[in-house]
Amino acid sequence: MWIALRKFQSKSKLTLWKFSAPILLFLIIANGGWTGVDRLALVVGDRPVTLSEVRAWIYLQSGECLSEPLTAEARQQIERMIASEKLYQTATEFGGFKFPPLILRQALRVMDSSRGFRLLNSHSLDNCHVSLSLLEEVLRRELVVQHYIRSRSGSLKPGEDALTTLASGLEPDVPVVNLLFQEPPAKSISTPDTIQSEKH
Fold first, then answer.
1. Can you list the alpha helix ranges (DSSP code H) found in the chain?
2. How far apart are CA 102 and CA 99, in angstroms?
3. What do you get for the CA distance between the two ends of the chain, in Å?
4. For the chain, which terminal residue's Cβ has fewer other Cβ atoms within 10 angstroms, N or C?
5. With bands split at pLDDT 50, 70 and 90, how would you rate the model's confidence at 85?
């Protein structure tokens, strides 16, 4: 009797595994368990920036999702992110800035309350494909950039856009590869060829 029960258990385990493995696999896929490779969006200097980081930066700045396809406003925001990345790399060239996780969480909560408690809403984060940990990292980088801007505010004229002015004045300029959209090349003014008559 005991031997027959053991044989039944081993057969039922095998049968159960045969049926449960495909079901489990289907549930993982259906539930979004497979995480795709994050797309490379930008290369600023020597740092690759992923599409997730772009989404998180735009979400932090505006509380909105990155529009797909990209609108003119989204393109302007991405240009500002590139400028911010340039300043971050310059600011951290001779040492990093450390912010304790508690400070970052408090700063996020302050931003969240100032925007009507919409920034940290889990539904909004999910809709925009932004993770909280990445949002904290993007905020950390932005705090460094804001500190850098404040330290150089004396060289700015009143009403000047500090972010773009300081980023455009970096020497040497930080190279950028934009894989999200290409800027159209500057139109060159072509001069019409003049036909000269031959002198005889």
1. 2-30, 51-62, 72-91, 101-114, 122-127, 132-151, 162-168
2. 8
3. 122
4. C
5. very high
